[in-house]
Design goal:
heterodimer, A: 262 residues, mainly alpha, 0% strand, B: 270 residues, two-stranded antiparallel ribbon
Amino acid sequence: MQRYLNLYGAFLGQQFKSYAEYRANFIIGASSTIMMQAANLLTVWVVMQQIPDFNGWGFSELLLIYGLITLSKSINHMFADNLWTVGRVYIRSGQFDRFLVRPIDPLFHLIADRFCYDGVGNFLVGVVLLGAALAGLDLAWTPLVPLYILLAVLSGGGIFIALNLITCVTSFWIMDSVPVTRAIFDNHLFAQYPLTIYPKAVTTLLTWLIPYGFASFYPASYLLGHDVGVYAWAGPVVAAVLLFAGYRFWQFGLRHYSGTGS
Amino acid sequence: MISYLRRQASIYGAIAASVPKRFLAFEIWFWVGLVLGAIEMMILVFFWRAVYGQTATLGGLSLDQTLTYILLAQVFAALADQDLIWEFGYNLREGLIAHMLLRPVGFQTNYYVQALASLATRMIMQLPMALLATAAFGLRWPTDLAAWGAFLVSALLGYTALFFFHWILACLTFYTTEVWGLGVLVYGLTRFFSGGLMPLAIMPVWLRTLVLAIPFAQSLAIPLNFLSGITPVAEAPATWLFQLAWVIGLGVVSQLFFRVAVRKVTVQGG
C-alpha cells in the first residue's frame, strides 16, 4: 500500500510539472467545470427567488444535495478520469500494452497516469456549495456531522468510480467505451435534485440499479433529519460492493484483452 | 458568372453532403444521444413541475407555457450547438489546419456550410426526441404558420450569428493550443445563456439584459419565443433586424480576428 502511495505521488509530481508548462489550459480547464455547474445553479437560484420552496425543499437544502453530489463527482473527476478514455486513448493506440509489462497493477497504473485538473473546478464548487448550504441550515452540529459528510462524499466518489470502472471494461471488447460510460454516468444528473420530484421508477433506478442517490439525496436527507431508514448509512456499503464488483469485472475483461496490433 | 456559381454550388454541396456521412459513421452516438436527451428532458420536465407546485405563474408564464418552451428547446437544442472549437482543436492537433488553409475554398465559408449541414442532420436525428416530447410529455405543437415562419427566419439568423461568435472563440485555440477546457467552458455558458434551461421571461430583468447583450440566446431562446407564443409574431421584423445586426457585426469581427489569430497557428502534429 505504501509503495503504491509513493508511486502515486511520483506520478502526480510529474503531471504537475507538465501542467505548469500549460498554465492557461490549467486555469481554463478548472474554471470550465465551474461554469458547467453555474448554469444549473443559476437556474435553481432564479426560480427559488420566486417560490417559497421546491417540493418542500428550501434553497439551502437544495444546495446541500447539489454540493454533495458535486464533491463526490469531483473525486472521480480528479483521480479516476482515465477510466473514460481507456479504450479511445490507450487500447486503440496500443499504449495499454505498456501497463501489462510493468511490475504494478495495470488498473492502478491507468488511474495514476492522469490527474484531471478540470475536476479541481468541480471540487471547489462542491466545497462552496456545501459551505453555503451548511451556513444557511439550522443543523445541530456534533462531531458526527463532519465525519458523516466526509464518509458520504468518499462513498459517493467510490460509487462514481465504480460505475465508470464497470462501464469502461466494455472497451476490452468494443474498443471505445465512452458512449456506454456516458449513458450510465449522465443518470447522476437526476440526483442533483431531490429524488422526491421524480416518479417511483426513477427513484428505484437511482437507488438500486445506478445508485447515485447514495451520493446526494440519502445523505442530505439524513443530515436534514428526514427519515430515510437504513439508506442513511448504506452509502459506504453500496460503494464497497460496487468497487469490488467493478474490480472483479475489470480483471475478467483484462483476461479477454487481446490488443489491437497498433 | 453562372458557371462560377455552379462550380461554387458543386464544391460546397459536396462539403455539405459529407457531413451526414460523418454522423452516420458513429451510429452508437446516435443511440446514446437519445438516452442523454431523454434523461435531460425528463429532469427538466419534473424540475419545472416541482417549481410550479408552489405557484400558478412565473414571469407571467403558466406551467403549460413553460413546459412547451422547455420541450421545444430540447427538441431544437441543435440550434445552440456549434462544433467549431472542437474542429479547430482537432485540426491543430492533427496538423490538418495547414492543409485546410491552403485549399482553394473559402476557409470560413467551408465551415459555415458544414455548420448548416450539421444543423440539418442533427434536426433529423432529433425526430425521436420530438416524438418523446409529444407522446410522453404532451407537447402541443404550434399550428400558427406565421409563428413557424417567424421562428425559421429568426433561427437561421441566430444560428449564423452564433456561428460567427463561435468562430471568434475558436480562434482562441490558436493561442491556448488545448481546447478541452475552452470547449467545456463555452458549452457551460451556452447551456444557460442560450435560454435552453428556462424561458428568458422568468429571469430577473438584470439577468435578462445580460443574456440579450451576448449572442448565445439569439439562436435558441429568441426564435423559440415565437414558436412557443411568448413573443407575438408582429414583433418578428424588429427582432430579425436586431439579429441581422448581430450577424453583420460578428461576421466582420470574426474575419478581422481570424486574420490576426491565424498568425499564431502552431501545428503540433500531423
